[in-house]
Amino acid sequence: MAKGKVATRGFLAAILSTSLLVSACGGGTSQGSGLEVIKLATQSPLSGAYANIGDAIRQGANYALMEEKDEFAKLGFDIQLFPQDDQGDPKQGVANAQLLVSNKDVLGVVGHYNTGVAIPSSVVYEKGSLVMVSPANTGVDLTEEGKKTVHRICARDDAQGPAAAMYAKNTMGVKTAFLIHDKTAYGQGLGDQVKAQFEKDGVKVLGYEGITVGEKDYSAVINQAVSKNPDVIFFGGIYAEGGLIVKQAREKGYKGIFMGGDGIDSSDLANIAGAAVEGVVYTSVAGDVTQTEVGKKWAADYEKATQKKPETYSVYGYDSMKVLLNGLKEAAKANGGKKPSREQVLEAVHKTKDFQGQFTKVTFNEKGDNQFAEVFIYKFENGKQVFVGKAE
Questions:
Q1: Could you confirm whether domain 9-154+289-362 is CATH 3.40.50.2300?
Q2: Predicted structure pTM score
């Protein structure tokens, strides 16, 4: 894929760190350079329980942007990252979205991590014609509401949920299941899909219960699950709560399989669950970039530039930004080389076809879903995330 000129690693590492300090004000031309400013935002949790993955999305997006900064400068544009901390909170996401829409230099957004934040924020983007490319949102409703601005490069829960359930039954021999969800748009949405597929395939669902995000003791629900001794406990939710549930279930003597979706796709699951993480299986809509030699090199270069090991969603933040940058270039070209409008960028991004990212290929359908999105299986072994393969 076309990446433009990549700066030397030392220089890239320096600008990666300084570029995150961009100002919320200003506009027009970059002071002293004569270049027109274009800001591309990220929206993800940079503080709180989900900051590990939220920061990986930001870092991946920023790494992609900095690779192309010189190329955009030659076109007359000072391309800047404008990162926002949505805190995994819908109200904060909406407030940030309003700030982004009000800033005329912001022409696109990479985000979010939580579907429950993305859906209300996308209402604001739609009103402001601000295109969004999500690296991680799987909730079905996000692209079913008919918003033109909404796009995602990952698979939806109606692909992930059935894939998880079928893998549990066909590969792991599961006959009984107890499902727990976190009552969010993402967690319950995924749980609903898994439950429906289990019931379709004859796996007996022994319970389906919700928990409250942010609590520390889930004994009430775990006691119910453990007492029924299911072959699998499936959790629809995020790693902060998932790690506690795994740990507490094992402490109460549960010996069966623990499984979840992409919400527990984080190295922090092991930090929270400790030794109890061993054997946890999960699906993810993000694949393992290190499965190829090219991908291994990308991961090594990324770590040298950012001083952080890539999380699974680092490359999806990267690819989402690459899709946005490609659309921006196409829009500028169609606009005679001048700074394009938001509507022009939106149109160009929406027309993305057969764009090869670092990991995934992208073609958006009319709804904004990626026709090449896939689902993958992982498990924890010796405290590490191990790629199993594609969910077939």
A1: yes
A2: 0.87
